[in-house]
Amino acid sequence: MTTLVSYAYPSSGQEDVDVEPLVKKGREFDTLDVISPASQDYNIYMLEILPPKYKMYVETCMDKMEPIGKCGLYVIKEILTNESVSRECCLKVVRAGKQCFIETNKLMFQFYQLKRFASQVSFKINEVWNRCSAEVII
């Protein structure tokens, strides 16, 4: 959970979303996981103040997506850089269910390293879900 971060709930009326990636592939994306003592303190505090039921729900969601391994990172990468995740990763997230996918990513974008994108990713999260669910037949 230490690499998780927040976004706002998707707006049903959101259209004209910029297709430019929020982060460039390569070095710019790779530096997102750098943790300073201050950012680590922020992340720990953010996790501590979450309601216990919510934390348990998200942990259960993450368990449903196991063994997700690097797929979670690849999903974040698709959200931020428009680089599509593999069919195998899509299968793992679709098996967990849409609500689990949404809530897990919502939490991911509350972490310090990704919170600056929180207001911009709700549409992309739904877009990734829609693409994966259309691509994968359970």
From TrEMBL:
Name of the protein described by the UniProt record: Prolamin-like domain-containing protein
UniProt keyword Signal present: yes
Superkingdom field: Eukaryota
Coiled-coil spans in chain: none
Keywords linked to the UniProt accession: Signal
Domain Prolamin-like: 60-133
